[in-house]
Every structure is written in structure tokens, then in C-alpha cells.
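Researcher: Here's the sequence for the chain we discussed earlier.
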Amino acid sequence: MSDPDTVAGNAPRETKLALQRVLQRTMSRTPTFGHTIFARTRLTEAALQPQAGAPERAEGRAVFELLVEDDMLNYGGFLHGGCAALLVDVLSGLAISVVLGTSSGVSLVLNMAYHAPAPRGALLRIVNTTIAVGNRVRSSRTEIWDSTHGRLVATGVHIKMDPSPQPTKEDAAKL
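Model: Thanks. This is the structure I predict for it:
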């Protein structure tokens, strides 16, 4: 975990620490899907700014860096589309967490578009920005850039929601 004081952006130090803790929890649950990838993922920016179309609302931004390594490759030797979707799934929610200060919810919809390959050794810059943050449903967009070769690799839009509450014993008895 990097020092939150070295992470760019105007998000509070506590928010930067919280984002890093989410990554730590993700990588500490071994063996889980993607844990080795998130162990190498580094938060480089966390920021809040007014939304362009609604300046009274906050837009969150969380930026990460990661080198493409063997455990991320498809058979052709490039970043696997499933790995790109995993990055969007986990990291896009952290832009929402910058705004909310809490968990971003559970996935409702995840849309991906793939633009260019990223080979082993490429430095990925994963830029996550909120689109809308409502009381129950929120959305964010992600751009995965190959900084080494100056190419946009993939984009994703992620819609998340609060999970339905767990039924109580009384609710279960009514069934």
C-alpha cells in the first residue's frame, strides 16, 4: 500500500486510505479470482470535482496503474478481455466510493467495449469516473489506457445498486 500523501487528487486522506484498504481486502482473500492482479494495482489519484452539467453535484475520480503480466494474458499474449472486465468491475466502484465515502453497492450492469490490444509489460492507466450517484443506483465509466503505447485498450460502463435487504426471520416465516 502506497503512502496516501503521495496519491494525487483532492480527495480526503481518509478516502484515499479507504480505497487502498478495499484493494488490500481484495488481494488478501487468497485464493480468490484476481487477487494477484489487485496486489500489484496502485492507486495514483483520488479526486472530487463538480460535475460538468450539474456543478452542485460531485464527480468522483479514481485512477490506478498496473503492469500487464502473464496472469492477465489471453492465448495471443495480450490483456484478456475478461481481465479488463474484472478491472472495470472492481475499480469503477472505487470512483463511486470517492463520492459516497462508503461501499458502492453490487453490480447491476457491466458493459464493455474493446479498442486495442495491450501486450505483456504494458503499463495500464485505469481511469474511473462517476456518471451519476443516486440514493440507490449509481454509475461510473472506466477507460483502460496502455500508457506505454499511447492507446485506449478498453472502456466500460458499470451500473451498481444497493443490495436488497436480507429477509428477516419473520419474513421467512411468512413464506
